[in-house]
Specification:
With about 220 residues, this protein is α+β, with helices and mostly antiparallel strands. It has five helices and twelve strands. It has helices at about 35-50, 80-90, 120-140, 155-170, 195-205, and strands at about 5-10, 15-20, 25-30, 55-60, 65-70, 90-95, 100-105, 105-115, 140-155, 175-180, 180-190, 210-220. β6 and β7 form a beta hairpin.
């Protein structure tokens, strides 16, 4: 069952091509966390393939994939953008380092079609665009994006390096440090992670250093 506190994002862009009845279908996937990023990607693909007959698009973003867009770009209504979007939103992939599938999000897809002279019909087009994206998703490399609790740990300058090293050794993810002011930590927000951190800091500093909760963030990895 997919983890409600995690989803999969592209580790790197992907481009692949298939041919169906002499038509070329070039699929490109890119990470996009906003409509602005998706539109910029779509525009770049159009510039790369200016002579193509169609540049059909789909986009889903956010932990709940609430932001969704698709466009048939001249293909018969419902035969391109929608099946592409369904291929994205129904996909479940296993990111590197995980043993369970996660839903896909923050992803923009373009299928560039060069018409080969043979009509595919509505059903053929739907299958072509859907399979183009599904196969690209299956081939792509993914990483997990997780909801994390954010904590700041303020320690004396002389102790910050040692405390950071011990916190890392204990398995906590340290994503930023500022030795003059604080060591910034990201922790998984499930279970007793904050209790474990408090106990560790108490043992390292005789109770003088504590963690301060600073909300949540979505973090790759």
């Amino acid at each position: 069952m997919p983890d409600a506190d995690a989803y999969a994002v592209l580790a790197r862009p992907l481009e692949r091509e298939i041919e169906i009845k002499r038509s070329r279908f070039i699929t490109l996937l890119s990470r996009a966390e906003s409509e602005e990023e998706a539109r910029a990607f779509f525009a770049d693909v159009r510039r790369r393939f200016p002579d193509a007959r169609h540049h059909c698009t789909a986009f889903a973003a956010g932990p709940d994939r609430r932001v969704q867009r698709s466009n048939d770009d001249g293909e018969p209504s419902g035969t391109a953008g929608r099946p592409m979007l369904e291929a994205l939103t129904l996909a479940e992939v296993t990111p590197v380092g995980r043993d369970a599938g996660l839903p896909v999000s923050d992803t923009a897809a373009v299928v560039v079609r060069y018409f080969g002279g043979v009509l595919l019909g509505a059903g053929g087009l739907t299958r072509a665009y859907s399979s183009s994206v599904s196969e690209a998703v299956a081939e792509a490399r993914w990483t997990a994006r997780r909801r994390m609790a954010l904590y700041a740990v303020e320690a004396p300058h002389a102790e910050a390096g040692r405390i950071e090293a011990e916190v890392r050794r204990a398995g906590f993810a340290v994503t930023g440090t500022d030795y003059g002011r604080a060591v910034t930590l990201h922790l998984g927000d499930a279970g007793d992670a904050s209790t474990d951190l408090d106990a560790l800091l108490a043992s390292l500093s005789h109770g003088e250093v504590t963690a301060r909760a600073e909300g949540e963030a979505w973090i790759d990895g």
